[in-house]
Design brief:
It comes from Rhizosphaericola mali. The protein has about 400 residues and is α+β, with helices and mostly antiparallel strands. It contains 11 helices and 18 strands. The protein has a domain of about 170 residues: FAD/NAD(P)-binding domain (3-Layer(bba) Sandwich).
């Protein structure tokens, strides 16, 4: 399936990682990672650092699936607000999930710094706007529960929001613990870093079509009939991981994004914050290192790639209108637009770990708007499990996590 269409900005901004290396013979490795996007690259990084032999496989050119369509906003806030999540899962689970997301933002920055990967990582503030006056009750509840559990948050009244961020809205929650990055540069940079040190093997245009658990591991087969023997498999293929799962665990969504022509820095909004809103589906916005504005949203249920793509022109108009409603005095002229498909879950949480009673196939499924921060968590959790270390986050994000009836 085409995971995105249109002109994705990251492929224009970066030189494509032109690496062509299909598997053409029998192969043996300790860990086989399926998927070379930001999730697969973070998992590979953590395992390589731990001295584990890794091979990464992708049916496409490296990191050209969902990663190039990502707007790469790193926020500890999860798509389901904490005050609502506690009604779906056990409160302790929800709170641990939020704190894990918070920690992962700085962990990503440290990973990129340590590997000397320039992915335009930048710490910024995050502003969550009340779309309507009635949404102030939601903000108040969310503010109270974040305060209760020592999560960074401040409440902006209407006048303070106008003064600090030049936005006319009933109110907002704000924190200074968010970040943004270039997901494609991060993914390809991490893979190149370990490839140059001969710490992993990387295979492109290699589609896995069969797999079976064997004694002490897995045996995979490519569409060309080559076999891969490994002790463990990590599925880092986003919603395309569905073929490896016994049943469907996610809902597919179509999403749309635009990027503007560059403007003078003085024309951008205060603090260059990540800005999003309470209404669903929510509208969001960020800036880039070269002073462009990236906006997105207008999500809807995914039906098929053709119907998704046919809506692009209409979505461009709606997103531009929403931007001008938020910042009427900032010039926004669309230069590129794209649409993509992503997955979400009912509780807003990812799935990390093994399927019950299948202990040698790991899943790193960072579904929802927090895919990258969830991917960082997945990489650390899987590394810890393979090293025999206890990680309480494994229970928080497992397929068997506790949900309220």
């Amino acid at each position: 399936m085409d995971l995105h269409s249109g002109l994705a900005f990251w492929l224009v901004k970066n030189k494509m990682y032109d690496y062509f290396h299909p598997l053409d013979k029998k192969h043996k490795t300790e860990i086989a990672i399926i998927g070379s996007g930001i999730t697969g690259s973070l998992v590979a990084h953590e395992l390589c650092k731990a001295g584990i032999k890794v091979s990464v496989f992708d049916k496409r050119t490296i990191s050209t699936g969902s990663t190039v369509a990502s707007t790469a906003q790193l926020q500890y806030e999860i798509d389901v607000p904490l005050c609502k999540m506690v009604d779906i899962v056990e409160e302790s689970v929800a709170v641990k999930a939020y704190h894990a997301s918070l920690a992962s933002i700085n962990d990503i920055g440290k990973v990129l710094k340590d590997a000397k990967v320039d992915a335009d990582y930048k710490n910024v503030s995050s502003v969550w706007l009340a779309s309507y006056k009635k949404d102030l009750k939601l903000l108040e509840k969310e503010y109270a529960i974040r305060e209760k559990y020592s999560l960074p948050v401040s409440y902006l009244e209407e006048k303070d929001l106008k003064k600090q961020h030049h936005i006319d809205a009933p109110g907002a929650l704000k924190n200074n613990e968010a970040a943004q990055m270039d997901a494609y540069a991060a993914a390809t940079g991490l893979l190149q870093h370990h490839l140059a040190k001969s710490e992993l093997e990387l295979f492109t245009h290699t589609r896995i079509v069969k797999w079976q658990e064997v004694k002490n591991g897995y045996e995979l087969q490519t569409e060309n009939g080559h076999t891969i023997q490994c002790k463990y498999v990590v599925i880092a293929a986003g919603f395309e991981a569905g073929q490896f799962l016994p049943k469907e665990v996610m809902q597919l969504q179509s999403t749309y994004a635009l990027i503007s022509k560059p403007v003078h820095e003085k024309e951008l909004w205060p603090e260059r914050s990540l800005i999003w809103e309470t209404k669903e589906p929510y509208f969001y916005m960020r800036t880039t290192a070269d002073n462009r504005m990236m906006i997105g949203g207008e999500d809807e249920e995914f039906k098929d790639p053709i119907k998704r793509d046919d809506l692009l022109r209409e979505k461009i108009r709606k997103l531009e209108k929403q931007f001008h409603k938020t910042y009427p005095d900032i010039p926004f002229e669309t230069e590129m637009a794209w649409c993509g498909t992503f997955s979400s879950t009912k509780d807003g949480l990812p799935y990390i770990g093994t399927w019950p009673r299948k202990k040698r196939m790991f899943f790193a499924l960072g579904y929802g708007g927090n895919g990258i921060t969830f991917s960082m968590i997945a990489a650390q959790v899987i590394r810890n499990i393979l090293q025999g270390k206890k990680d309480e986050r494994a229970d928080v994000f497992s397929f068997e996590r506790k949900r309220k009836k």
